[in-house]
Amino acid sequence: MEGGNSPNLQLQQLPLATAAVSVQPHTDSFSYKENLIGALLAIFGHLVISIALNLQKYSHIRLAGSKDPRAYFKTKTWWCGLFLLVLGELGVFSSYAFAPLSLIVPLSAVSVIASAIIGIIFIKEKWKPKDFLRRYVLSFVGCGLAIVGTYLLITFGPNSHEKMTGENITRHLVSWPFLLYMLVEIIVFCLLLYFYKEKNANYIVVILLLVALLGSMTVVTVKAVAGMIVVSIQGNLQLDYPIFYIMLVCMIATAIFQATFLAQASQLYDSSQIASIGYILSTTAAITAGATFYLDFTGEDVLHICMFALGCLIAFLGVFLITRNRKKSVPFEPYISMDAMPGMQNMHDKGIAVQPDLKASFSYGALENNDNMPEIYTPATLPIVQEQHGSKGVSAPPYRVLEHSKKE
User: Fold this and answer.
1) Nearest Cα to Cα of residue 246 among 190, 183, 173, 176
2) pTM (2 d.p.)
3) Could you state, in order of their start, the residue ranges of all structural domains in the chain?
4) 214, 224, 237, 326: which one has the fewest Cβ atoms less than 10 Å from its Cβ?
5) pLDDT of residue 5
């Protein structure tokens, strides 16, 4: 009996062994090739996006500084920037279908590096070599660190790949690690939204955390949609699965809300702070979502995980140094300096320059609502001492304060 069953057992085990041997090397070699394709597509996309945004910005600046009556959308430069912007977004979108999510997301540091290099190349100020190095030393150091971090990310990135089919995405969607992650994310998002809307907690960390939580869901759905499209192009149609359209709707919705919070943050804070803090928070949230949903780091050894984390930290530091070196905008002054008004003599009160009193019933250029004041149309009573310039025989032209009626 045993002798008769042994050939059957050997025949049954032989195909399994050969299948295991044949699949493993193919998966390793092909997965590294997919990682390289996805990384190159992401780098290309972010470079093109950075060039496109700078071209559109250049178009706006050139029209603002000239007497050209044309609108910005009627210039070739702006349309060229729009074309490159769409091309870059397509490159980044397609990169998610080849490489793991945790590898593609940190590569957005390439756009920050490209923007810094373009800003240095097309700078209009003339600097001496010593002043130039002193002014842009942080940018050079930041670019170097970001490049080193990007190299570590590509080299030690996760190497897990699976076909983005409807069955696989549905299985990941109902897995308990992702459901637990979604529960925690929804609770944190609701708490942050409550403090932001009800308690007026307009802190940059609060707003950008809302953006990061929405962005983590955006990149998860982007990878699902892009992967299913690529699998469909390869011959295995996936567009008839309901999960595809669910992911598509979630991708569009989260992207819209993410852009809304980013617009609100740009009105309150400087763009350099948004770029650095937003990159750190969004990348961290996206990597966590990718590791939970797609199990990117399953089967990776400790060395690769530690080197990948080191690459992220170095890229974070590089982006922070690049954005920290940008010029900060000068805040608007809520008053007009009287002694700086063109065509008017200096006005003094006992030798001290006069500034309008914001508590008075009338103020020059003050950002103050005086609608409830009963004497809003009362003329300003500021003592004026005329100063004579030039020879003593020539008198200065008289100046007086005109009264304004309510009809005016």
Assistant:
1) 173
2) 0.70
3) 162-295
4) 237
5) 47
**How far apart (Å, rounded) are the C-alpha atoms in residues 91 and 21?**
35
Is residue 293 within 8 Å of 220, Cβ to Cβ?
Answer: yes
Q: Are strands 348-349 and 352-353 parallel, antiparallel or unpaired?
A: antiparallel
Instruction: Please write the tens of the pLDDT for every residue from 237-289.
Output: 888 899 999 999 999 999 999 999 998 898 888 888 898 899 999 999 999 99
Where residue 395 falls among pLDDT bands split at 50, 70, 90? low
Asked whether the predicted pLDDT for residue 119 surpasses 50, the reply is: yes
Q: Tokens 């930290």 label which residue? A: 313
Side-chain half-sphere of 353: how many Cα atoms within 13 Å?
9
The encoded tokens of residue 139 equal 């940018």
Instruction: Please state the length of the chain.
Output: 408
**Crossing angle of helices 204-233/166-173, nearest 10°?**
150
Token digits of residue 54: 């700078």
Q: Which helix (H) or strand (E) holds 352?
A: strand 352-353
Phi, psi of 348 (to 5 degrees): -130, 155
Here the tokens at position 184 are 């925690």
Residue for token pair 């995980």: 305
Distance, CA of 406 to CA of 408 (rounded, Å): 5
* Dist. CA 237–CA 98, nearest whole Å: 17
